């Protein structure tokens, strides 16, 4: 091989490596670009108050996206999380407003806020377990299984109140159930509680995914389910666990949303699943499974959040906002495919 040919191939390899690096950092680059764009184009975009508002919006999407990322890593999908948000918010609101009614015993139990939170989290996790069982034990495709539970959970949320809203969820001193609004509107050392919850969940989720045997098994199932099973991984247990994680995260969001509003509405969480999936995909999580990072998902959620709030501040029509978000998601998938092809060709 001549020196000229070797030099040309070396140059081509270097260019491919640079392009691969840029593609791997695409979400972070996108976040910088959209932030700079809105900083120049939208008045008052760069301010502490607006940064806090954006972060609170992002926290809701990012917490949902953390759970969905685990599901997608196994090659699944969860469309039910938005409805779980609505249902768990209604469960919490109903318990605070009307208590747990036991007609057979003729009593009403009013749980305190901690008990209400635990019950709501158990409900969300249980629905996640049902999703996992439908997928693993009954062989239902994840898309269909979670689409079904989407409708069931939304219907259950409506049935809890007959379609009405549980309002004024501040509790009563004599019932010992005060303090619920702190979850969505409280602060810890000046930082909103919802952001603190996001940081804690993100750190735990990232550690579990990258540093524990469970995390490695999640990636193994998504990378090659048959090979994982042959190597001793209990695939069904892993799949059920990730759907439970997704349901738990959705319940957390349900609590945050209802406490922020100091009210529970059965329609809460509608289309939340779409933004959460978009955040995971933007963050580099492959829809085919086996590849993705929690950190990337969080950055993806910030891209969605900055884009949404920035467009609102610029006065862009809600219809155009939907178009722009859709184009961004399509671009993310296209770039993900390009990255895979380049990585494969680069060996």
Shape: globular
Examine the secondary-structure arrangement and name the CATH architecture.
Answer: Orthogonal Bundle
Mean pLDDT rating: 88
Report the biggest beta sheet as strand number plus sense, adding barrel if it closes.
2 strands, antiparallel
Please give the CATH class.
Answer: Mainly Alpha
Radius of gyration: 22 Å
Give the secondary structure arrangement, pairings included.
Blueprint: H1 3-24, H2 26-41, H3 48-73, H4 81-98, E1 100-102, E2 107-109, H5 113-136, H6 142-161, E3 166-167, H7 182-185, E4 187-188, E5 191-192, H8 193-211, H9 213-223, H10 225-230, H11 235-261, E6 263-264, H12 272-282, H13 294-313, H14 318-346
Antiparallel strand pairs: 1-2, 3-6, 4-5
Helix pairs in contact: 1-14, 2-13, 3-8, 3-11, 3-12, 3-13, 4-5, 4-6, 4-11, 5-6, 5-11, 8-9, 9-11, 12-13
């Amino acid at each position: 091989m001549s020196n000229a040919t070797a030099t040309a191939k070396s140059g081509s390899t270097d260019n491919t490596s640079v392009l691969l690096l840029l593609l791997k950092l695409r979400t972070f680059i996108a976040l910088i670009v959209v932030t700079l764009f809105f900083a120049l184009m939208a008045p008052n975009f760069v301010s502490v108050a607006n940064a806090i508002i954006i972060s609170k919006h992002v926290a809701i999407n990012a917490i949902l996206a953390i759970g969905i990322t685990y599901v997608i890593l196994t090659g699944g999908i969860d469309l039910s999380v938005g409805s779980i948000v609505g249902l768990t918010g209604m469960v919490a609101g109903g318990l605070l407003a009307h208590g747990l009614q036991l007609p057979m015993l003729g009593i009403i139990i009013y749980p305190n806020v901690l008990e209400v939170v635990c019950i709501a989290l158990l409900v969300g996790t249980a629905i996640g377990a049902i999703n996992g069982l439908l997928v693993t034990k009954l062989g239902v495709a994840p898309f269909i299984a979670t689409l079904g539970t989407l409708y069931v959970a939304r219907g259950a949320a409506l049935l809890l109140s007959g379609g009405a809203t549980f309002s004024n969820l501040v509790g009563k001193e004599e019932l010992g159930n005060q303090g619920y609004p702190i979850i969505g509107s409280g602060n810890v050392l000046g930082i909103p509680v919802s952001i603190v919850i996001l940081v804690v969940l993100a750190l735990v989720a990232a550690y579990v995914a990258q540093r524990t045997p469970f995390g490695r098994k999640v990636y193994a199932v998504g990378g090659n389910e048959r090979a994982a099973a042959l190597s001793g991984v209990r695939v069904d247990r892993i799949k059920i666990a990730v759907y439970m994680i997704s349901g738990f995260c959705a319940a957390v969001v349900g609590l945050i949303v209802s406490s922020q509003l100091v009210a529970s509405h059965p329609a809460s969480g509608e289309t939340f699943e779409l933004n959460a999936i978009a955040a995971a995909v933007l963050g580099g999580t492959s829809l085919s499974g086996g590849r993705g990072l929690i950190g990337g998902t969080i950055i993806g959620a910030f891209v969605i959040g900055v884009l949404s709030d920035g467009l609102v501040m610029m006065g862009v029509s809600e219809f155009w906002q939907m178009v722009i978000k859709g184009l961004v998601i399509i671009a993310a998938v296209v770039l993900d495919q390009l990255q895979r092809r380049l990585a494969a060709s680069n060996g």
